[in-house]
Structures are given as structure tokens and as C-alpha cells.
């Protein structure tokens, strides 16, 4: 099977490298050898072993009748979208690691693929090292999925892990992560939760068979988490993780959120550290299952792209299903999502905080009764389950809390 | 698709229940509805909703041209083997939860399936709630698998979790587990590691494409683990887990073992508690990935059987590959498998133990230098990496140690 790779950056060169390295395994998986015939990039790559495969014009690729599959690893919506559409319209399957494109136009692209008896697969767009989309569409397909909860971003998980381990503040760990190449120069997409948001939007869309747009998802990043929060977390026997969570409610709508959560040490996601990602799925017969792997890194993402290539090869000339649809999902409003909240306040604001909670009708526990944080200048509480809207309204009458973090209960 | 279920016990009735409950999901996964036409059992089931489907004669099933698939949930090698062979010879695919049969005759049965253009799938025989075999044959198929390490038995993991949490001894927790139905009256197969051994033998066979017989696998159970071992484990920042481990060596042979291991708290398997199972896979491009789910329970196992049914339905009239072969694996002798060992001895035997280790040329660390166990009547050491044979030989000259547990290092 001759293929083309669009974009010879980190992921694209990873894909070529995996294909070169695991030739035999890929042949056995795909049922035939997979060969990179073209690499599309604006740049040239003198002395690269694939130097002669590099082309600068997409037309060469899409007009070559030998090309049966394209791996799109460019990122961004254009020209990736146009290239993908043109390929699919010619019956050339496309696999991608491009979450922006899948989030924005996945449903349309799948329709085009289906109409042209080819496939559009995007495992690498959600969790590089975790075959979660494949699993949802095969082994878990006969299950009724109730919820999906994931640590979906390697950079933020690395930062939170280090903040906890070293007792350092966000800004210091971020700087270190940037030096080590674990965080980008402009870390906004990661630390503000935008990357995780796109991924949970795709997962939520898949489990609900409805379209969830990332813009609709309540998203909170980790920039407000401080080193002191981890001291309380330890006392509560919890850890702080940035989670994407999507859950079907009884009335058929969806609760979707990205936010830092305090999760119990006994929760299967609590042990997921550093750049690792994991997705926990709850379904009606199997119960809880979890899928764990490297969330970042050239090879892990590339391996997911290659697994999609092999799946398409195994199902030649047939549409491989991925259930993204255009029908809009009905989402529970962020203000109506109910959780227990961890609330920290300066000791001097204690009375005002207690009054605000009480006036808002929000029950709470004083954490001082459970453990000694050693931080005498503060008070900390855990509320009873309360909607975010109700809590916000109550807190309007109090000084801004030092922290407000949701609890994930099991 | 009309199917038959052989054996209406725990797993068989679970399969029927999953098919009844998830009718729509199964239809969507299989591409067609799945209907139970026959249930083979020696007993009758008056007032059961499927009472009229129960038959006592396998010939009725195998001679019915409508039957395209059989779910064998009887257990044991006979008559399961004969029934499976007869079905496959007629081109009827078989899915099973029967690890004894897969371990003993899997390769032959797969050959018969292949020759008759049907399939023999056995996801439920390894990890009920974990789609690990499916993943190894699809998403991970283009990877070079280096090792597989798993918590493969729910009963022993439950017992170890409770021993640690409560500080109780093996016998007491076992008794409690039996009362709760988490352990069988005769717990030998679980607590002596035989069940985990059959599962790692199947996994080892799959990753090596060679036949690993369970009789060849060095197997140690958890009956000798005591409550004191957990005190040292805590000091070492480790937990004790019964692991099945299979690893390819550089010369192409396999290291396979089932034994309790001291694993670091940072290891992804260390958070797997109670009846949950998990399998960690290391492969050349993806690195470490892990698959986690309920290891026991009617529905989890049944769900895995149903997932196999759907996979066969999706690939109608085609052989679905599972790579068990007849060619014998070359295994590293148990005596030559090298690990660090945790060694406990009575304080009075300290000198004899130290002399035995030193005379055997085995370096060791005194754990007393690392933490205070609080147990003054004992001494505890961790050896440098040493082969089991060398250690055993050295210990012949010392009083029997109170514990000897391998360390899993990452």
C-alpha cells in the first residue's frame, strides 16, 4: 500500500520513522507492506533518507492513482481541511492527528469518507499512546457507555505531578517544563485546558453520537492551582488532576467539563503521573475500564497514526466506522453542573465566607476537623454537592476565595 | 445472527443477559441483531425467560444450519474441546471464556478454524474486563511487543489489597473473601497462581508467536505472604502484587514467571486494587501502555464474550486472526531468571544469613539503613540482581528465610 504523509514535522517524521522501523510488524498488521511514496512539506530536507519523497504540491499526491491513503499530520484547519476533503472525494482514506480539524469538521469529513467508500480515522487526535477510539468502536461497542473521564493532556499532567512532588508553584514548574521541552513557549493551549477540551469534545461526541463543540464545554485550566492546594489535597487523601469528563444524564443530555479536580487516591486515574494520559470508561456491563499510555511524544502519537493506517489496510475498500454526527448534542449548562467544591479562604475572611455559604443554603464541612494543614493563615472547606451557578452566586457576597476546586467522587 | 451458548452457568447466563440487555448496542456493533437460539445444559431451567431455548443434546445445535456462532462457556477441556472442534469443522465460529482449553489446545483449534474459514476467539479467557487480546491484535499489532506484565487474578488481588489495608494475615483474609464469594471454597487455583499462570501462558504465546505451556512457567502463589511483608513494602515505597510477567530476551527466548512482586508505588500497576485486573504492555514505539478493568464478575467476563461475538459478526465468513501457534517457545529457565530479592530473616539468624549471602557472592543492602520497620526481632535485606538458582544455592547454607519476594524495577 503506497501512502503519502502531509507535513514532515514532529508527528509526520514520527510516522515515517515508525513505518521504517516496524516494517515487518506493520506488514503483519496491515496484511501488506506499507510504503511512504510522498511527503508533502513546503521545506526541503537535504540528506534526509526520505529526501527524494518530499514534494511541495498536493496535486501530485492526490492525482497519483497508486496512493490509497494519506496521513495528515499538518495540524490546523487549513489547508488540512481542503486536502482531506479532496483526498476523501477521490476515495483515498485519510488518517490524522489533527484535533482542531476533527473537532471543527470531523462529522462532515466522515460523511464524505462514507459516501466515497473510504475512511477518516483520527485515533492520534485524542490520546497519542492510548487506543481509545479504536476500543470504543470495537471492544466497547456492544456496551452502553455511561461516562468517559480522562487525563488528556501530558503537559499539564507533568506540571501538576511536579508541583506536588517538589512543592513548587505553577509558574516555576512551567518554566522548568518549557526548558525541558515538555511545554511550549506559548503554553496557553495546554495550561488553560484548550487542548484537553478539544479531546473531551471529540470523546463526548463519540459516546453520545451527537455533536459536541469545544466552544460549548466549560473549561478551566490549571493556572490558578497553587502549591498550597496540594497540601490540602494530601490531607484529603486526594490528588489534583486536570480532567476532561463527559457523562450521559438520565434525560439524554450530556454533562461535559474540563477542570482541575481533586480525585481520591483510590481512583484509578490518581496514579497517572508525568506526561502519561489515561481514559476511564464506565459502561453498563463491563463497569469501569481504563486505558493508559504516553500522552505526548513523537513516537506514541505516530504509533497511533500507524495503527489507523493498518486498520484501514485490513478493511480495504470499506468505510471503517467512527460515529461523529452533525446532530447537535444537548449539553447541561455549566452553571447547573453539580459537584462538591473545595474552598480555601484567608483566615481573616472566615466569617464572611461562612455567612456567604450559609446564606446561599450551601452546607459545608470544615477541613480543620479532618486534618491539620499546618497553614494557620487560612481556612478550608468542602461544600455539599452544589451547582456551580448557586455557588458562584453565594460567593458574590464573600471575598474571592483563594481556591475553588471540584471534587470527583466515586 | 443466531447463536448457541454452551453451559448456562455464571458466564453463560451472563452472556445471555448481556445480549438481552444491550440489544441495540450489539446490533450496532455486530452490524446485525444477535439472537440466542439454543442454550446447551444438562439441567433444565423452569421459569427462566430462556427456558424454551435450553437443549441437552449438542447435535441439535451443530446440525442446525441457522447457527453461525457458538459461545462456549462450559470450562474444562472435555466435552468443550470436542464440541468446539465439531463446530469449527462445520464452519461455525466459536468464542470462549475457557482458559484451560485455550491453554491446552488453542493452537490446534485456531488451525481448524482457519481451515474452515471461521474464527476461534478467547478474549474472556485472559482478562474478563480488559480487551487486551483484541488490542494486541489490532491497535498494538504494528508495534514490536517487548513485554507484558499483568495483575491477572481478581481473587488474589483482592486478598493482597485487604491484607495491606487491614493489616491482616493471609488465612484470615482468605476466609473473609470466601464468605463474600470473592474466593472459591477450594481457592488453590487462585491463591497458588495457577489461574494467573494459564493467563500469562496465553499472553506469552500471543506476543511471541510461539507456544508457551503453563506447565513450563515458574509459578509462585501468595500463600506465604504475611502481614509483616506489607510493613516492609511500605518502608520500601512499594506494594505487593501477584504478577504474571512475560518478556522477550535479546536472544529471542522468553522469560515468563508468575510470582508475588514488590512493585514501586510509581509503577502503573501499583494502584490496581481489589478485584481489578490490569495488563501493562511495553512496545518499541508506543512505550508503556496499560489496560485496566474488572477481573472477575459475571457481567465483565460475559461482556468480553459478547465483544468477541460482535467482532466475528463484523468479519463474517472470514478468519479473525489470533496468533497461537504450535511451535514451542524457548523459555529462560526459572533458575536463571534474575531479580533483586527481598529477604527477611529472624534476628538470631542474622549472621548466618549474611555469611550465606556473602559466601554466595550476592551483594545486599540492609533495609534497616533505609527505614525503621518497627519489627525488632527481624532483619531484612534487598539483594543485588541475582538469579534464583544462585540465590537458592546460597541460602541452602542459611536458616530458611521468613520471606523471599522479588522486586520489580522500572
Task: Please describe what this structure looks like.
2 copies of one chain form a homodimer. Chain A has 410 residues and is α/β, with parallel strands linked by helices. Chain A folds into 3 domains: 2-128 and 299-314, 3-Layer(aba) Sandwich (Rossmann fold); 135-294, Dihydrodipicolinate Reductase, domain 2 (2-Layer Sandwich), CATH 3.30.360.10; 335-407, Alpha-Beta Plaits. Helix content of chain A is 35%, strand content 24%. Chain A contains 14 helices and 17 strands. The first copy, chain A, has helices spanning 10-21, 23-30, 58-62, 80-89, 99-115, 132-137, 154-166, 170-180, 188-191, 194-208, 227-235, 298-314, 350-359, 388-395; strands at residues 2-6, 35-40, 54-55, 67-72, 93-96, 120-121, 145-151, 218-219, 238-248, 254-264, 276-283, 287-294, 338-346, 364-366, 378-383, 386-387, 403-407. In chain A, the strands form 2 sheets. In chain A, strands 7, 8, 9, 10, 11, 12, 13, 14, 15, 16 and 17 form an 11-stranded mixed sheet that branches. A 6-stranded parallel sheet of chain A has the order 3-2-1-4-5-6, sandwiched between helices. In chain A, strand 4, helix 4 (80-89) and strand 5 form a beta-alpha-beta unit. In chain A, helix 4 (80-89) packs parallel to helix 5. The model of chain A has no long low-confidence stretch (mean pLDDT 95). At the A-B interface, helix 2, strand 11, strand 12 and helix 12 of A face helix 2, strand 11, strand 12 and helix 12 of B.
Amino acid at each position: 500500500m503506497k501512502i503519502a504523509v502531509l507535513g514532515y514535522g514532529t508527528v509526520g517524521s514520527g510516522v515515517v520513522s515508525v513505518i521504517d522501523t516496524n516494517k515487518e510488524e506493520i506488514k503483519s498488521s496491515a496484511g501488506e507492506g506499507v510504503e511512504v511514496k510522498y511527503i508533502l512539506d513546503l521545506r526541503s530536507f537535504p540528506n534526509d533518507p526520505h529526501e527524494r519523497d518530499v514534494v511541495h504540491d498536493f496535486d501530485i499526491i492526490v492525482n497519483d492513482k497508486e496512493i490509497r491513503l494519506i496521513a495528515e499530520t499538518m495540524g490546523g484547519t487549513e489547508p488540512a481541511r481542503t486536502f482531506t476533503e479532496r483526498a476523501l472525494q477521490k476515495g483515498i482514506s485519510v488518517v490524522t492527528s489533527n484535533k482542531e480539524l476533527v473537532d471543527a469538521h470531523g462529522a462532515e469529513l466522515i460523511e464524505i469518507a462514507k459516501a466515497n467508500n473510504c475512511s477518516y480515522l483520527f485515533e492520534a487526535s485524542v490520546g497519542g499512546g492510548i487506543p481509545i477510539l479504536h476500543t470504543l468502536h470495537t471492544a466497547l461497542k456492544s456496551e452502553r457507555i455511561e461516562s468517559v473521564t480522562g487525563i488528556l493532556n501530558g503537559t499539564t499532567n507533568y506540571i501538576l505531578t511536579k508541583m506536588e512532588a517538589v512543592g513548587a508553584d505553577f509558574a516555576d514548574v512551567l518554566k522548568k517544563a518549557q526548558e525541558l521541552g515538555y511545554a511550549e513557549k506559548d503554553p496557553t493551549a495546554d495550561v488553560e485546558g484548550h487542548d484537553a477540551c478539544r479531546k473531551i469534545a471529540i470523546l463526548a461526541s463519540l459516546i453520545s453520537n451527537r455533536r459536541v463543540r469545544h466552544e460549548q464545554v466549560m473549561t478551566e485550566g490549571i493556572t490558578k492551582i497553587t502549591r498550597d492546594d496540594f497540601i490540602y489535597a494530601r490531607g484529603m487523601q486526594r490528588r489534583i488532576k486536570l480532567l476532561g469528563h463527559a457523562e450521559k444524564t438520565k434525560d439524554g443530555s450530556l454533562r461535559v467539563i474540563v477542570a482541575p479536580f481533586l480525585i481520591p487516591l483510590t481512583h484509578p486515574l490518581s496514579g497517572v503521573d508525568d506526561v502519561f494520559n489515561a481514559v476511564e470508561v464506565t459502561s453498563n456491563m463491563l463497569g469501569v475500564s481504563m486505558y493508559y499510555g504516553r500522552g505526548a511524544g513523537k513516537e506514541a502519537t505516530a504509533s497511533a497514526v500507524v495503527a489507523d493506517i493498518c486498520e484501514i489496510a485490513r478493511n480495504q475498500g470499506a468505510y471503517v466506522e467512527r460515529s461523529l454526527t452533525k446532530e447537535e448534542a444537548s449539553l447541561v449548562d455549566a452553571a447547573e453542573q453539580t459537584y462538591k467544591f473545595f474552598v480555601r479562604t484567608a483566615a481573616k475572611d472566615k466569617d464572611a465566607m461562612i455567612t456567604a455559604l450559609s446564606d446561599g443554603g450551601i452546607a459545608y464541612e470544615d477541613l480543620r476537623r479532618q486534618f491539620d494543614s499546618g497553614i494557620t493563615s487560612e481556612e478550608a472547606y468542602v461544600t455539599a454537592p452544589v451547582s456551580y451557578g448557586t455557588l458562584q452566586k453565594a460567593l458574590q457576597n464573600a471575598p474571592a476565595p483563594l481556591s475553588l476546586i471540584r471534587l470527583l467522587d466515586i
